[in-house]
Amino acid sequence: NVEPRSVPVFPWHSLVPFLAPTQSD
Amino acid sequence: PPPSSAAVPPSLPPYFIKGSIIQLADGELKRVEDLKTEDFIQSAEISSELKIDSSTVERIEGSHTSPNVAVVQFSVGEHRAQVSVEVMVEYPFFVFGQGWSSCCPDRTTQLLELPCTKLSVGDVCISLTLKNLR
Q1: On the CB side of A9, how many CA atoms lie within 13 Å of its CA?
Q2: 3-state secondary structure of B92
Q3: How high does pLDDT run on average in chain A?
Q4: β strands within chain B, DSSP E
């Protein structure tokens, strides 16, 4: 099976670094 | 042999290449170079899991491991939590009200063709955290 090649679409949140602050309390 | 479609180093994600199609939370499609601050804010508002945090650049240093790597220290959110990330110098961050910025914008433009300005101490970048941390 040959899958048709389509333009990849990326979710918006993949562009943003995930910086989870450490919870001190 | 590996595909020769792009000269982008394997460490750089493909979605930063100019022309990449990005889907916002409301389904709208935009090119990566056309994204605005509002796109991220509105997408985070729709999201049930993610929220936008402000991350202020506190320090930018070279890495001991590689000349092409930088260590960027951020102060994240209202609690100003200190977070350091090690990234390729061409890795772009989105600065509030400004757009894509990296430690080495010339390399970013060269490798990704993504219009980019110089990331500086004091810049406020968009970052994500989980909405329900409790």
Answers
A1: 8
A2: coil
A3: 79
A4: 21-23, 29-31, 50-62, 69-76, 81-88, 93-95, 99-102, 117-118, 124-130
Question: Could you read off the pLDDT of B83-108 as tens digits, one per residue?
Answer: 999 999 999 999 999 999 999 999 99
Distance of CA B118 to the CA centre of its chain: 12
Question: Between β-strands B21-23 and A9-11, what pairing exists: parallel, antiparallel or unpaired?
Answer: parallel
Dmax over CA atoms of chain B, in Å, equals: 48
Q: Does A9 touch chain B (CB under 8 A)?
A: yes
Please tell me whether residue B23 adopts helix, strand or coil conformation. Answer: strand
Chain B residues with CB under 8 Å of a chain A CB are: 13-16, 20-25, 29, 32, 35, 39-40, 43, 47, 50, 52-53, 55, 74, 76-77, 79, 81, 83, 85, 93-94, 125-130, 133
Q: Please report which residue ranges of B2-119 form alpha helices under DSSP H.
A: 37-46, 105-112
**Helix or strand (DSSP H, E) at A11:** strand A9-11
Shortest distance between the Cα of B110 and any Cα of chain A, in A, equals 19
